[in-house]
């Protein structure tokens, strides 16, 4: 797959049809002791869309994601993924459900003792369904899919740049050919060029593989470039979930601060190219 240079222009793919919800979160409450993280979160994610989740640090973005993928139990409320409630499944069914999504955790989290190719191959080896030569071939394909080459296969995580680490983590998330991809701060810590390259990669993968993507990000450029809809977590709830142009009109202090500050205005100009919005490379 060729990876073309990124631009700051928003993805113009048609928005997916509503109604086909891949993820349904209803009246979710999550508490740790007396500390309330979520108090009535409602959110649907539709097949084929890129939904971004934003919110202040500690607002519960990662905890929401961990509940959706069944790593944590809600205090109350319900979560369905592909129509199934992960908390009610037996372990074999839960594993089958987990194989339908890929996860890139905040921080990348590669296994430092495993080479690049072994990191990518890990989910396939855990399946115990394929001979090792096929696993290696599949892992190599995924490596190429994220813009790396066979020469990178035997490198160790400590030898990789930040951008390469993120790509390897993404290749591992794609190892089982998921329909749904969760990305937690995928561009955090990358320089602007590496970040743009990563954004373009996600855009291409989404187009080619028809992925549904749930992405947590603080980065406005990434948000603007990729999102069909943005969900805003604040006050322990989702206070808005809509295309970014509509979200910015919602009267909420976090939205004002996040989307309407000076830094935000620069990123938002990319949504209005006809009125002289920022061009790629322009700061
Ligand atoms: N296992 C846990 N036990 C107790 N509190 C927790 C636990 N996990 C998360 N929390 C708390 O839940 C709140 C939400 O955390 P979370 O990691 O979801 O924030 P976040 O929105 O992802 O923040 P950031 O943008 O900094 O990544 C925080 O106050 C955190 O301390
Ligand atoms: Mg987080």
From TrEMBL:
<keyword id="KW-0067">ATP-binding</keyword>
<keyword id="KW-0547">Nucleotide-binding</keyword>
<keyword id="KW-0378">Hydrolase</keyword>
<keyword id="KW-0813">Transport</keyword>
<dbReference type="Pfam" id="PF00005">
    <property type="entry name" value="ABC_tran"/>
</dbReference>
<keyword id="KW-0472">Membrane</keyword>
<dbReference type="GO" id="GO:0005524">
    <property type="term" value="F:ATP binding"/>
</dbReference>
<protein>
    <submittedName>
        <fullName>Intermembrane phospholipid transport system ATP-binding protein MlaF</fullName>
        <ecNumber>3.6.3.-</ecNumber>
    </submittedName>
</protein>
<dbReference type="InterPro" id="IPR003593">
    <property type="entry name" value="AAA+_ATPase"/>
</dbReference>
<dbReference type="InterPro" id="IPR003439">
    <property type="entry name" value="ABC_transporter-like_ATP-bd"/>
</dbReference>
<keyword id="KW-0997">Cell inner membrane</keyword>
<dbReference type="GO" id="GO:0016887">
    <property type="term" value="F:ATP hydrolysis activity"/>
</dbReference>
<feature type="domain" description="ABC transporter">
    <location>
        <begin position="23"/>
        <end position="260"/>
    </location>
</feature>
<keyword id="KW-1003">Cell membrane</keyword>
<dbReference type="InterPro" id="IPR027417">
    <property type="entry name" value="P-loop_NTPase"/>
</dbReference>
């Amino acid at each position: 797959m060729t990876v073309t240079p990124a631009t700051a222009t928003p993805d113009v793919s048609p928005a997916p049809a509503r109604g086909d919800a891949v993820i349904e979160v209803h009246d979710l409450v999550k508490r740790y002791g007396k500390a309330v993280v979520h108090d009535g979160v409602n959110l649907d994610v539709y097949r084929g869309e890129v939904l971004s989740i934003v919110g202040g640090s500690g607002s519960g973005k990662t905890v929401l994601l961990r509940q959706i993928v069944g790593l944590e139990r809600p205090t109350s409320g319900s979560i369905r993924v592909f129509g199934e409630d992960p908390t009610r499944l037996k372990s074999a069914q839960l594993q089958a459900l987990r194989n339908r999504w890929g996860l890139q955790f905040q921080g990348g989290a590669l296994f430092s003792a495993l080479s690049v190719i072994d990191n990518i191959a890990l989910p396939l080896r855990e399946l115990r369904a394929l001979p090792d030569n096929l696993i290696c071939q599949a892992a190599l394909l995924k490596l190429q899919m994220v813009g790396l080459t066979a020469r990178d296969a035997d490198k160790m995580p400590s030898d990789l740049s930040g951008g390469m680490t993120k790509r390897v983590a993404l290749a591992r998330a794609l190892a089982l050919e998921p329909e749904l991809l969760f990305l937690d701060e995928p561009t955090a810590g990358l320089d602007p060029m590496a970040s743009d390259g990563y954004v373009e990669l996600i855009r291409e993968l989404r187009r080619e593989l028809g992925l549904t993507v749930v992405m947590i990000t603080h980065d406005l450029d990434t948000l603007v470039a990729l999102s069909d809809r943005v969900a805003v977590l604040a006050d322990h709830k989702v206070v808005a979930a809509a295309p970014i142009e509509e979200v910015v009109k919602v009267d909420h202090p976090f939205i004002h601060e996040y989307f309407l500050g000076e830094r935000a205005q620069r990123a938002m100009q990319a949504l209005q190219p006809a009125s002289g919005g920022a061009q790629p490379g322009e700061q």
